[in-house]
Amino acid sequence: MKKQFLRVGALALASVILAGSVSLSSYAVERSYSYNYDYWGDVQDTPDFYEPCKTFTWKDLNLDKKITNPQGITAYGNFLYLCDSGNNRIIKMKSNSRESLEVVDIYDHFNGDSISGDNTFSTPTDVAISEDGNIFVADKGNARILKLDKDFNYIMEFGKPEDSSLDKDLAFAPSKIVVDTAERVYAVAVGINKGLLKYENDGTFTNFHGAPPASYNLLDYIWKKFASQEQLMKMESFVPTEYSNVYINEDGFIYACAGAVSEEDLKGGTGQNTRLLNLLGSDILVRNGVYSEGDFPVYGDIYMGSGGGMSGPSQFIDITSFPNEVFVCLDKNRGRLFSYDNQGRLLFCCGGNGNMDGYFRNPVALDHIGYDIYVLDQLDCAITVFTLTNFGELVFSAMEQFDQGKYDESLSDWQQVIKYDGNYDLAYIGIGRAYLRQKEYKTAMEYFKLKYDDENYSKAYRQYRKIWVEDHIVIIVIVLLVLFLVPTIIGKIKSIKYEFATADIFKV
Amino acid sequence: MFASLFSKEKWQRYLKSLKFALYCTTHPIDGFWDLTHERRGTYAAANTILFITILTRILRLRYTSFIFIRVYWEDLNILTYVLSILIPLGLFVIGNWALTTLFDGKGRLGQVYMATCYALTPYSLINIPLMIFSNFITTEEAQFYSVVGMIALIWVAFIGILGMSQVHEYSFGKNIIFLVATVFAMLVMIFLLMLFFSMITQGVAYFVSIAKELLYRM
């Protein structure tokens, strides 16, 4: 017996040593161009959702000189405005088809006299066009936002806001602007981290819009209480992160992205790199479905380790959104595009740093015409057009048809999507939701269970359970009655038997 | 050794001692006193309860609704999973015995083991029905699941604490002190074991490298 015990002990020891000594072997895997994260946060290769269609350089556009240091592009109808910031000019282009861009006009000045008398641009970084066709230019080098009519005639300009909370010595440098239907201007300015600057349509500054929450943690706070003055100077202050870019959609909601959000803040939920601001400036972005180690979903790359000279979280530099509420973010750090639906679920990510088609060296801005995405690369000085593949079209059509209430069509589209990519979680949930609407609860439950969607599963299961109980109500009642009656009857019989057995008359 | 398997008396004693575990869950003070002092518990029953507890732990991974437990099967190692229950249990039993035996504890090593295993009874008693029940509820009713699961753990801890005091014939306060001390004893043991294993692996690696060197040169 003792020997056996020893033997078992030795075996246990050996297995512990073995388990400890087997090192995790890591090997590089050739990844596809597009990928997605599954429920567990594992990277899954997917078919391409978007593919690069064509790249336009200054030669393709028949320009007189090389584009230098471009900062922004804005799409308006079929027209595309490119800020050729290095050459202090704005290039207006027309997109005839996704493979042809034609320069319509080049603006290096505007007409009419401005207050400051200077009617040229200096490092224009962004353009916004209102519903009435008025053009707003972030004239960064001249520290002003210009309001021009559609032929570049001067209307007015907005300068540095008169606000006591702003540092008087701070040079005003508006970098990104959007304008809403009432011609209110929301601007991102370098060095101002209190939110977006909001100007009324008459040019008066009203307030800071959608200030990002200041990020700090308790440990830092306690540490600060004890730190000396010099230590405090060295430490980073708890400043809210500055927005890097904005986009306004048809309904007047503003998508804002922030570039320099630290890894800890992203994973700890104290900072967000993507926000959706309503009219009051509060964040209404739905954040679920994106895998996270803690409880807080991460936007952008989940794995932030260093590799290929890049490390840290994704740094979103621009954002745009389609009418179907899908939005696309551009990551400056790894040169990738990330796209999410209105529930915050990842649709695809693709791209990377490099010189090939579809890869970037230093992407700075993106916008879209229809479903074509135009991405501007600052170093390549080129615009790359991305277009939907069959796979992407299927996903979009499945989502849109579901929203329109065409559940049969949505279902068949999602089933097509699964044929392209069996690892596409959204397709399974989409099929489940379509079945749920068609009241096929059992099938819906199976699909939700496969992809761990407990909310939808519960919805389906509640209905399924209700129907099951209604169908089997007779049996349930009978079973319950039997369960209650049988013991009482047995008890009765036993007591009668006992009385018989102990009754005096039977005693001999 | 196998003769005992066919002895009817032994079987009866085993079943009786197993049934006694149920009495211990509802009458811990009385039950655990009788467990050791009246010899109403058996090692066979203790082993069985431990086995059922481990089995419950494993089964609930698979058969609890995915609403509550989601397992990344690719990363699950059943051996380490079982050891993650057995090793803390073993450390607790040894640590507790080693400490209490120095301070008037009446319980012997086997008795501490037996009492600990008997205290685990409510865990499987509650968790097996709970596992089945979990498949019939939705996220809104999830509170029931977590509350009942919590009750099982509290119950195990409660009768475990009472059981230890009965086995060692300790007063309640002294018992609590020694249970806290046991936790520290466990930590010390883990530290020593890790030290030991890292030394062993380094020692083994030394001889392995010598062997490799020799092989290269031959």
Can you offer a commentary on this structure?
The complex is a heterodimer of chains A (508) and B (218). Chain A has 508 residues and is α+β, with helices and mostly antiparallel strands. Chain A has two domains: 345 residues, Neuraminidase (6 Propeller), CATH 2.120.10; 109 residues, Tetratricopeptide repeat domain (Serine Threonine Protein Phosphatase 5, Tetratricopeptide repeat, Alpha Horseshoe), CATH 1.25.40. In chain A, 28% of the residues lie in helices and 28% in strands. Chain A has ten helices and 25 strands. In chain A, the strands form six sheets. A six-stranded antiparallel beta sheet of chain A has the order 2-1-22-21-20-19, with no helix packed on it. Chain A has a four-stranded antiparallel beta sheet with strand order 3-25-24-23. Chain A has a four-stranded antiparallel beta sheet with strand order 4-5-6-7, with no helix packed on it. The longest helix of chain A has 30 residues. The relative contact order of chain A is 0.09. About 3% of the residues of chain A have low confidence. With 218 residues, chain B is an all-alpha fold. Chain B has one domain. Chain B is globular, with a radius of gyration of 21 Å. At the A-B interface, helix 1 and helix 9 of A face helix 4 and helix 8 of B.
